[in-house]
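Deliverable D5.2: sample structural annotation.
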Amino acid sequence: MFTIVFFGCRTDNPTITILFDKVDVLQVGAKVYCQGKPVGEVIDLDEVQHKIAVKIQLEEGARIPIGSTFVLNPSLLGSADISIEPSSDPTYILSKDTVLGEFNQNALFDNLTTDTAKRKKINESIKKIKEGMKGIIEASKNDTIQALRP
């Protein structure tokens, strides 16, 4: 009598590591999109040599062309996500490859309003706030220096 044992064929979905300078509010489980369609998710975050290594797992069959741009889109209203802007290269990134990513600062306010004029006013206000904060920091430094002088 023969006993036949079947082992399930398991195919691991491809993983890619993306290196970012910063990853505001990105979490494990965050979605990865390519041309607006979900193609994967974040499965791990780790610090590597002053960068954040974000490991993503792609859905079965998802292929990303070499030279594509990986953009982290932070959000004030929830978790960040990653969007992939595919290149036209006919060759594809392989599983376990590492690529560089970009941080999209403008995405913070994209979810607040779709009105371009309002978004422009928000960005102008933020610039003014940054300038004001720089002034406060400089004044604080000067006050500290003055206090330290005999």
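Annotation notes: The CA atoms of residues 14 and 94 lie 7 Å apart. Helices lie at 116-148.
The annotation will be released with the project's public dataset once the embargo ends.
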